[in-house]
Amino acid sequence: MGSGSSKKKKTAPGGGRVRYRDLVTRGKVTAHYRPGRRLGAGNMATVYLYSRVRDNKPFAAKIVEKDSLSNQEEFTNELEILAHLRGHSHILELEDVFEDKHKYYLITDLVAGGELFDRICNYGQYTEGLAKKMIIPMLHALQFVHEKQIVHRDIKPENLLLMDGSPNAPLKIADFGVACWMQELGQGPNRYLKCGTPEYMAPEMYQSRFAPYDRAVDVWAMGCVVYIMLCGWHPFQDQENPAKQQQNILYDDLSSLAEEEISDNAKHFIMKMLDKNPNKRWTIPQILEHPWLCANATFDNKSLQTQHERFKRFQHLRRLRKVSFAVLAATRASKMVLDKSSFKHDDPKVVPML
């Protein structure tokens, strides 16, 4: 398990839930992995390149400061979910877990191929068959998640990654930070929590504060992803007006799909994933039986040249927004540091806000 011994990765008997304490490898992380360069950073974690001592295999090490977590139990729940999903070729693999007084260390696959959507932008000829080839493994991975009684709750382009830069690199579904066990969805203070990314949230998540939902929300989110891949734009997104975006999702107007230059089977496929009624929305097993996914479909060579150009523009705007958000976050962080440095404890006019 990356511990320098022949010990296997910890799993519960019969494939049941593994508790966090059973996941943690004893000792210091540096006894088993060599730290390398920084790969990236977020609000609560920094990711580094780590190499396993016994075979020099590279991994990603996500290091999380405990003080940055408002709820450590929710964080360790994510690790238990990842451990429960081990072994699927299209799901981010949790290799090892370490903990010290101040930090958590998550050792996972080194997913170095970037986002799936970036790869699509670089294709010369883009067809329905090529899109289908990428969609099928995502559906199989999501079926595995649902069979394990887990709902992801944040399926979106940023969480669909490629293992490496090779032409046939395996796709990985990542980021289970807001994933939940099905049996716990309607329990506790976070009962039917409205979470995820707004433009990919299903209509039932917008109904009311405690409106129930289930794994069908993942189907909806994947339907949005498929729509973008085949049509080149998001059917409900409105970055300027969140209230209008919510109404777009609740109204679920897919009339423009009729105008799209894609096959009728592809249109039907999308509509079954984006049915606003979760009880009528197709499940992943049903979707995998859809005629559009047939191995020798006659429409596989149908060109998506126009849609591909739209897709490139869509992805370009996504990148610009990501850069803007990063600059805004850095500016806010710098302002907080400056405010703290200018604070004078002996000034009776300044009262620290806790």
Quick rundown:
By secondary structure, the chain is of the alpha+beta class. It has helices at residues 20-23, 72-84, 116-121, 128-147, 216-231, 242-251, 264-273, 284-287, 305-341; strands at residues 33-41, 45-52, 58-65, 94-99, 103-108, 150-151, 160-162, 171-173, 180-181.
Explain the overall architecture.
By secondary structure, the protein is of the alpha+beta class. The chain has nine helices and nine strands. The strands form three sheets. It has a five-stranded antiparallel sheet with strand order 1-2-3-5-4, covered by helices on one side. A hairpin with a 3-residue loop joins strand 4 and strand 5. Helix 4 (128-147) runs antiparallel to helix 5 (216-231). The model is unreliable at 1-7, 333-338 and 340-354 (pLDDT under 50).
Reconstruct the topology from this structure.
Elements: H1 20-23, E1 33-41, E2 45-52, E3 58-65, H2 72-84, E4 94-99, E5 103-108, H3 116-121, H4 128-147, E6 150-151, E7 160-162, E8 171-173, E9 180-181, H5 216-231, H6 242-251, H7 264-273, H8 284-287, H9 305-341
Antiparallel strand pairs: 1-2, 2-3, 3-5, 4-5, 6-9, 7-8
Helix pairs in contact: 4-5, 5-7, 5-9
